[in-house]
Amino acid sequence: METTFPKLLLQHASQRPQAPAMREKEFGIWQSLSWSQLAALAERIACGLHDAGLSRGEHIVIIGANRPRLYATMLAAQALGAVPVPLYQDATAVEAAFPINNAEVRIAFAEDQEQVDKLLEIRTQCPQLTTIYYDDPRGLRNYADAGLHSLDALVAAGDVIAKQRPGFFAEAIASTQPEDVAAMFFTSGTTGNPKGVVHTHRTLLDRAHAGAQFDRLSNTEEVLAYMPPAWIGQNIFSYAQWLACGYVVNCPESSGTVMIDLKEIGPTYYFAPPRVFEALLTSVMIRMEDASAIKRRMFHAFMDVARRVGPQLRDGKSVGTADRLLYALGNLLVYGPLRNNLGMSRVRVAYTAGEAIGPDLFTFYRAIGINLKQLYGSTETAVFVCLQPDDQVRADTVGIPIQGVEIQVADNGEILVRSPGLLKEYYKNPAATAEVKTADGWYHTGDAGFLDAHGHLKIIDRAKDVGRLADGSIFAPKYIENKLKFFPHIKEAVAVGDARDMVCAMINIDFDAVGNWAEKRNLPYAGYTDLAQKPEVYQLVKECLEKVNADLAADEKLAGSQVSRFLILHKELDADDGELTRTNKVRRGFIADKYGVLVDALYGGKSEQYIETQVKFEDGRTGSVSATLKIMDARTFAPVRAAA
What we know:
Distance between the termini: 53 Å
Number of helices: 21
CATH architecture of the domain at 5-202 and 227-244: 3-Layer(aba) Sandwich
Structural class: alpha/beta
Shape: globular
Largest sheet: 5 strands, parallel
CATH class of the domain at 5-202 and 227-244: Alpha Beta
Radius of gyration: 25 Å
Number of strands: 28
CATH topology of the domain at 5-202 and 227-244: Rossmann fold
Strand order of the largest sheet: 4-3-5-6-7
């Protein structure tokens, strides 16, 4: 696209000045910001930043949740030719130091006191970080640190400049070009230091428009922006496509009010990683546990109908008259109220991405009438590579290549992508850029998969994670883990088995779901560690594992990957402890090293193993958690042979 984000801002402000651009919930009330008001705010911030010396090509850090004034700050920086770098708001101070130093950041924007404290903490490690602006002043009244200013003060200073030079903002925006760097996103760093992925206005907007055209998005859509802005998925849906289409982005009051805000807004276009859909389903199942026996029977009976015919109806296929009537009754009594309770009554298009979603979980949402689809992409591809057409949605594929995308499958099974949305480079890392991007424009995704007979892409796992058992059987850990996580009682799973004679698993229970289950059975427990080691809980998890094993036995290629032994971890895997990335992806190598004694015990035939693990608390303190973990065998099944 021959345009830039700030140019689109001015276009919307000119054509639809009074239309709402964003809403933010404050003190329980939704406040709207029109396109003209947003443009005026961005102008004042840009003028203030220009006065503060922000130069073209300079990086600024933005750390916080989705807030209209932080979005305006990104637009203001881009108007001046500077490059916004959003960071995860739940990252520790130490984690923020590397990107700030790598990008030579001098000016940072923080949402609130928590983020200001992080930035002040690392100032000695980041001597070039001279100026910090904050949006929310609560708790900061007595801070007297040098270079710490309120965003209000910047806006006021910019207002003076804007009045003195009324044409400055428009002139600055006119000089921005599609090939200018628009933003930089740091990868999650699963195997080392994160890398700065550099994207231009052209790459981001090309993919934003391609996705919008594919799903016929318009300026009438409503979106809830509740995921971290540092995650490119959220950034594409609530920033790039927002400016490309001109729809309304709604910012929740806080992370704790997202479910309430979701119901109030009723988004038409929704995006969430699988873990959010898993959590929503878990909350549904917990509530069903509390329901009366009649309601439980009705729910399960109609869900059987939904799983049988719901996806077919969703895809526009014909079903029998009796099934259609039963589904309509189920929609009245169960599915409709359930969609409303989830805040998805108005959803026209919903996407999940970030990692593979379990097929059972995926089918559940489509069965109750939610148009949930999968997409395939990454930070480096500006998200949109493959999307699922409304009438071609399958649980085991991630869709077809969309406009402008070419796909190749290398001899080793790795997916290669060529697209107008590919990264410009990894910042200050030409070796890493050359490793993933060939001279003729192909990007090495690192994912293993293939195109099926219908042209749909099927992802097996990360190429580096796909292995073989000792007998030569395929071992795809993510596939196994996703099937396990469909069960509401299992929050996380790590499968081990490459080059070994069997598959073993380390499990995290879902504390809320299992706690609710335990309380209904009058099973006392004193915290997560105690609950996780209860014999009854082990039996519960074992039943889940054996159902997965039965499913795997029916898959000729994966029958050898059934889980033979397992244990339940004494603590939840946590990004603060280095076990997960900030996007909640398992860091396999780190976990294999950290819990090597448990892996040895699983394969050594032991029935229990003592372990002590260091943990980091939310206030920054460190401590340790210790327990003697039980190890249990799970039943495996003979492979089901296909009929000749």
